[in-house]
Design a protein that fits this description.
Layout (H helix, E strand, L loop, with lengths): L14 E7 L6 H11 L4 E6 L6 H11 L3 E5 L6 H14 L4 E4 L11 H10 L3 E7 L6 E3 L3 H18 L11 E4 H6 L9 H14 L3 E6 L1 E3 L10 H26 L11
Parallel strand pairs: 1-2, 1-4, 2-3, 5-8, 6-9
Antiparallel strand pairs: 4-7, 5-7
């Protein structure tokens, strides 16, 4: 249980948690129920990609019972990244001030969401808070060794290539300040999976935003099927490499006579 223990902070900003789903009928009710108990001031938006197992219908039933739960239906499986972008757009149109990400499968402990919200509320300079597995106090449970090696290696490679001082850039447990999301060109985001999380972190940093991390416990899903695939890993490796090369190119040009060292070269 979070140290915040579900208590609503004074003058809490309007908060929405975006939860993408595809065939998560076994896990969604428990995850959202725990989230509503842990952070009752936060609304929930389920973004469902036409799940064949009826997740979308189940989410609608949950929304009928709890007006803080909303559902955005999409046609067919369009991917994690576009689901979040659609959810962000939905939230911005309705004036939410803090917009969060969380998995539907229970891997992110809903009881730790108040920790992310407390951190972003405590410092108005912070634009993105990441629930991190790889900072002191963070941990993973029930993960095979090869998954931990892959995640740690991917984050190390990301730090080296992009120069971002972020311990867990691939994490999907997050809280964004709406003002920052409005600065980003969200329709241009095409990355999926882990790469989407890296892409969003990169964009926040390049826009001059401040990123903070809080330790979390990540738990391997106990029900349903993982969406991890080889294509997701290949996409992330390829795009991070391209972004890193482009960044180094901008830095080198900035060192030449007449060059510029703006925010994009940091």
């Amino acid at each position: 249980m979070s140290a915040n223990d579900g208590a609503r902070p004074g003058d809490a900003p309007r908060t929405l948690v975006v939860v993408p789903t595809y065939n998560e009928s076994l896990t969604l009710p428990g995850t959202v129920g725990r989230l509503r108990a842990a952070a009752p001031w936060a609304d929930v938006l389920v973004v469902d990609d036409g799940s064949p197992d009826g997740t979308g219908r189940l989410a609608e039933e949950m929304g009928e019972a709890d007006p803080a739960i909303h559902v955005l239906h999409r046609e067919g499986k369009q991917g994690l990244g576009t689901a979040y972008v659609a959810g962000f757009g939905w939230a911005l149109e309705r004036g939410y001030e803090i917009i969060c990400e969380m998995d539907a499968d229970g891997s992110h402990r809903p009881e730790q969401m108040p920790d992310l919200l407390a951190r972003i509320s405590a410092d108005p300079r912070v634009d993105l808070v990441i629930g991190s597995r790889w900072v002191p106090g963070g941990e993973v449970e029930n993960w095979p060794l090869h998954r931990e090696v892959l995640s740690r290696g991917a984050n190390l490679y990301t730090r080296v290539m992009l120069g971002m001082p972020v311990g867990d850039a691939t994490a999907g447990f997050r809280a964004f300040r709406a003002e920052m999301l409005e600065k980003l060109d969200l329709p241009s985001v095409s990355s999926q999976g882990y790469c989407f999380q890296v892409d969003m972190t990169r964009r926040v940093v390049e826009a001059g935003g401040k990123v903070a991390e809080v330790p979390i416990t990540f738990v391997e899903r106990e029900a349903g099927v993982s969406k991890m695939s080889r294509n997701i890993i290949v996409e992330a490796l390829g795009k991070v490499t391209v972004w890193g090369v482009q960044k180094r190119g901008r830095q080198l040009r900035g060192l030449l006579p007449g060059g510029s060292t703006g925010a994009s070269a940091r």
